[in-house]
Amino acid sequence: MISIDKINLSFGGFELFKEISFLVNPKDRIGLIGKNGAGKSTLLKIITGIENPTAGVVAVPKETSVGYLPQQMVVSDTRTLKNEVTQAFEELLAIEKKIAHLNQEIAESEDYHSDDYLKKLDLITEYNERYQLLGGDNYEAELEQTLMGLGFERTDFDRMTSEFSGGWRMRVELAKLLLKKPDVFLLDEPTNHLDIESIQWLEDFLKTYSGAVILVSHDKAFLDAVCNRTIEISLGKITDQKMNYSRFMDWKAEQREINLAAYTNQQKMIEDTERFIERFRYKSSKAVQVQSRVKQLEKLDRIEIEEEDNSALKINFPPAPRSGRVVVEAKHISKYYDSLHVLDDINLTIENGEKIAFVGRNGEGKTTLARIIMSELEHGGTMKLGHNVKIGYFAQNQAQLLNGELTVFETIDEIAVGDIRTKIRDILAAFLFRGEDIEKKVKVLSGGEKSRLAMIRLMLEPVNFLILDEPTNHLDMRSKEILKNALANFSGTVLVVSHDRDFLDGLVNCIYEFRNKKAKQHLGGIFDFLYRKKMESMKELESKKKNTKAAKVVTSDKQNDELSFDEKKEINRTISRMEKSVAQTEEKIAELEAEIEEMDKLLANPGDIDDHSVFEQYEQLKSNLEQSMLDWENAHEELENWKAKKTW
């Protein structure tokens, strides 16, 4: 469908692309990956024709339509949300006008047998057929479905687009692009401004889309769910494999070992050859052999190995100062912004060592509650921090608080202490500050670079309660993994506001879902939460269909066919956790039964008992045993329910 043939791109002697070639086929789902600066966004711009290659050809057939969503774009502010998104149906709207105009002319005509009159009737028939073919009777329903899938409410439809924040206006452009239904989607970080529910909706849309997709994203879960092919840009060349991101990375690790061995052997051969040339360069008897070796080196296709990314680099937060058991206790929290009611009667308790996530649609109050915990906002109800709680806060605007006159290195060096000072350059490199970058002044950095720098500062400060608001927005996958590992090893308490499922997976064990001014607690991991939400949605759908003839119960086999790898992994993890809980309860029951048996022997001769508190202790043991038996019964029943879901 689209042919990229031997593309070269040079900037002042630096080659970004070296004869890149690949084909985009119908229904391809391509994940375009690579380090920051590898040229992913540039390649999308070349395919769209926004930029031109130094050499090579991009061939896009005339009948092939391409839809491009850049990371940043200028949006219109002159229409309501619905009117703006309706512009996606440009051809339909034009046909509607033509039909209306022709109907008016026909109604005013009096000569029903003229050629002109009959020609207009034929045109109306032709336009109506085209209108039906383009889905004209259904486009408004499709528009509403798309807007609501991306997180908009019906009450938003008549609002001016100028009233929405930048992130929401990007959703407007995404909605228009999806509704245009081009043959090929080129999407550059489309999930940056979406919440979890909208990301899942977009996943489902793209997975079933009839056209092709080329996708740039740092969201591993999104790439795995959508893509069936991965193209990595590295050292100006591409590696193209028909597999999703996770499988590609496993394959790449195996290939790296093979290439590294070949590279080592080649380097030894080059070294031996150069030593021979140097040794016999001036001996006439060896002139032929020397020239042969020189030509051999000139013709050699040298193996290049991408610089090791030092992925094993371990960065840990400083040891957390000791705090009380209860870190946050919130009761009946409410919050209004003028007449806008954001939070209503929220109760929340966070204990020492817990790792919690706030999730939900944008605008539901997640950041607001985080700022209330920080004592930054006035509110109704009571908010109490525990003993000796020291908060480290990363906000989405954290970068604005940095000193613009310091260099990148100085910004970290001023707070680094002890052995960490010897690792500053390694830490900066892990967050993509390398070479001359570390000597740049903070004031010349981009917003994303400042955010990464602010994150590094936070990782070096001794606190015991971390509140992180969208910490992964400007991090690549490796930086996210480093941060995630550091948070997992952190001995203090963590609260994360995030839409990044892969980042939250295995990190948090409690989810607070924000919806309709409330915050509902869900115990377990992120994919456990999403699986339950999916089952709830399916139950709601079935209840709506139960009175229709076509309604059929979704079997557990089909449900599991639709489960993603991460959802299956979460079910396995939950089963393991439940099995451990059941085993621990059984141990406790055994201990209580043993204690009661000893007490029974003692109470066989009550006349020998002087201390009447023994009887109270006996009753308490029996009460504890009864409660433990009840706990075991509930845990065992829940374990069996989870095992029933595992049919793969």
UniProtKB/TrEMBL annotation:
Q: Which domain of life is it from?
A: Bacteria
The chain's coiled-coil residues are 85-112, 531-635
* SUPFAM superfamilies, per database record: P-loop containing nucleoside triphosphate hydrolases
Q: Which SMART domains match?
A: AAA
Tell me the InterPro entries matching this sequence. AAA+_ATPase, ABC_tran_Xtn, ABC_transporter-like_ATP-bd, ABC_transporter-like_CS, ABCF_ATPase, P-loop_NTPase, Val-tRNA_synth_C_sf
Q: Which GO terms describe its molecular function?
A: ATP binding; ATP hydrolysis activity; transferase activity
| One Pfam family linked to the record | ABC_tran_Xtn
The ABC transporter domain is annotated at 2-260, 328-541
Q: Which UniProt keywords apply?
A: ATP-binding, Coiled coil, Nucleotide-binding, Repeat, Transferase
PROSITE patterns documented for this protein: ABC_TRANSPORTER_1 (PS00211), ABC_TRANSPORTER_2 (PS50893)
Question: Which PANTHER family does the annotation name?
Answer: ABC TRANSPORTER ATP-BINDING SUBUNIT (PTHR42855), DRUG RESISTANCE ABC TRANSPORTER,ATP-BINDING PROTEIN (PTHR42855:SF2)
The family assignment reads: Belongs to the ABC transporter superfamily. ABCF family. YbiT subfamily.
Protein name, UniProt field: Probable ATP-binding protein YbiT
Q: Which organism is it from?
A: Draconibacterium sediminis
